[in-house]
Every structure is written in structure tokens, then in C-alpha cells.
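Checklist before submission:
- one chain only
- standard amino acids only
- sequence pasted in full

Submission:
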Amino acid sequence: FRFFQLYFQLEILHFGIFAEISQRTLFVLKKCIDMTQNNFSYLLLAGKICVNFLHEFSLGIEYAQKAVEFGEISQAKAYHVLGVAYSKQSTKARTREERLELQKKALEALIKANEINPQDHLILLHLALQHAIVREIPAAFAAVKASLRLNETAEGWNLLALLLSSQKKLSEAVIICDTAFQNFQDENLIMTKAKLEKILKLRDVALETLKQATELWKKKDVYQQKRIYQEEDLTEQPTDLRSIESQSVKGDDAEMDKKSIIQHTMSVYSDDLEHSAEHVRGVGRVEVWVLAAQLFIELGQSKDVRECLQEARQISAFHPDILFSEGLLLEFQNSPAAAAEVYERVLCIDAGHVKSLIKLSNLAHAHGRDAVLAEKYLTSAVRLEPENYEVWELLGRLFSAKGEAQKAAECFSVAVDLEATAPILPYHKIEMVL
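Returned file contents:
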């Protein structure tokens, strides 16, 4: 038994702290759960790994449901994991009915978690986010404000800004982002603020905002380099299994020592999960360069557009948003046929790229091509993003042009309802991280 504890400890160190979370780490954790007869802490941690890193949401739900069977104090954490798992699983649903059912279960679990422990700011934050996702905006405002009163976080302020944008209070949202960034130096706040400024036609201001992101990267790169040097120093000292074993058997009570090995390792590992979660929450650098490129397109500065896209390619050569921006540039240069070819290439990389589907539909409809093809693109888009009011509006215009007044009216009605509560960025841009 002691050898397994040591093996577990080494696996967690090797695959949890000094490398990415992996299936092998979860495998070792499963063995530990079996040997400890569904210990709550291990079930909870396994659920977090599945949800945060492995994206095995169904398995995360299974672990969380087992953890729910424990006492009242523990149940809040278990319901929290369960709610987040259901919420993330809903994004993978194939049908509208399945998605709505999973969203309902997510909301119920998070409400239950909050009822058991109303002082947990993270539960409140995720509850607010889930309310926002299902467009229960007043409830989302109440929950996020309660979360911020307990503990101010960058994610909380970012969600508040998005909620304000859904009520078309864009200037107030900009102020929220600007104030929060002074305290948190968070890239997601920069992206939200720049997007708001873009919509407000403050393009030069938005570009200055994005420069803050590049300055933040420099600081993070320096910090990361220091960590690499420190880890290299640590790895120069080989791990001696015998020395660990000799230390582990010291003490009066061998059974207590066996437990302490895992408890200590899980404590260290939990700390590392928090550091890894910071990486998960970080906005991609490609997104920053792409947004800058799109701002330069609107300003008519083609040379700067190409420079931004080149910077983005150095990070991720085949990122669909880079190709999409190239299509936007071609449209700006009055080359619709070439732009359409680029958008088709985007779909070869990412068949679910809704913005490209919308562009292809617009080009097909505007240039007298097959209206059936334009409708096909839009029906695919609405299936992928049923809350996207722009898609419903375009579908309405298409049906109107075809003389199908009843279908057009229905699409326009849905578009109006969705647009009334639509944020400037999707709420899922704020990731639920346990």
C-alpha cells in the first residue's frame, strides 16, 4: 500500500506540477479513489481535472454526483463542480433540447451550491455567469454583485462589463474595464474594453488599449523565464525513491503517515491547479493581434493589417480567425470572390466558424448567387449559435427577399428578442474555472 502512495505522489508531481494535466494523472487518481472507497477530496479533485483540463465533462459529472452524497458542508463544493460540468457539457450538445436541459441542470446545481454556502464568491460568480448564459439578466446582475462584494476578481468585473453591454450601457462598461484593469492587469479585461471601444468607433483608443496587452505579455514572459530557470535548477537534483520512502515511514503511526503522504501531495497539487487555472483564463495572443488587424482594416491601413496578421501567424499559423481577417481585408479591397475562397478555407479548418458562414451567406446573397446556398450557410450558423441575433436577422432578410413573409417575421422576432440582451462578446469568453 505504501508503495502505491509513493507512486501516486511521484505521478502527481511529474504530470501535475512539472507538465500538463494528463490522462495518466487521472488514471492514478482513479486508483486512489478506488482504494479509499470514494474519498470526497479525491472525487472532487478528479471532477475538477475532468472539467478544467481534460474536457471530459460527462466523467466530471459522474465524479461530482458521487461527491454530492457526502455531508452538507461538502455538498456545496460538489454541487459547484456538478453545475460547471453541466454548463460546459451544454456547449457540446447536438440538439437545442439537449442544450436547454443541460443548462437547466447547471443552473439548478449552482443554485443549490449557493444555498448551502452563500459566502463562496466563486460559486456566486459561476451562478451569475450561468444566469447570463440563459439570459436571466437581473438575476445575473444580483449574483455577480454579491460575488464582487465578497471578493473582487477580474472575471467578476469582466462579467459585470458584459452584462452592462447587454443593456447597451457601453460607456459604463468601458469605465468598469478600465478601473478593474488597474487592479488586476487581466488580458480579458483588455479585450473586452478594446471590443467596446471598437463598437463605439473609438478605433485609435482601442489600438492603444491593445498595446497594454503587449506590455503585459512582456512582463509575463520575463516571469515565465524566471520560473523555467528555477525548474531547471530543481530537475538537476534527481528524485530518490528510497529517500522518500525512508522519510515516509518515520513517525509513530504508519497509517497516519500513509494518509499524510497523499494529503500533502493533494495540497500541493491543488495549489498547482490554481496556477494552471490562471493560464486557462488568459486570453489568446492571437485574438489580440486579430482584433488589432480588424481595427486597422476599418481605418484603411492595409500595411498594418498585414503586420498584425503576420505576428498572429507566428503564434498559430493555421488559426481560423487569422484567415478570416484576411478575407475581411480582401472584401475591403473589393475582391469578394477571393474573399469567399478564403472563407471557404476557414471552414476547412473549422467547420463551425460562424462568422465565415455569415460572410459566405452575405456574399452569395449580395452578388446574385444561389439563394439556396445562402440559406444553407445561415441554417448551419443558427444551429451552431442559436443565440446569435445577427444570424436570425439575416435569415429574416433572406426569407423576406424570397417572399416568405411568415418565416421572415418569425426570424425577425427572434432576432429582436436576442439583440435586446446580447452582450458585445459571448458570455462563454469568461470560462468557468474551478
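Reviewer check: The first helix runs from residue 2 to 17.
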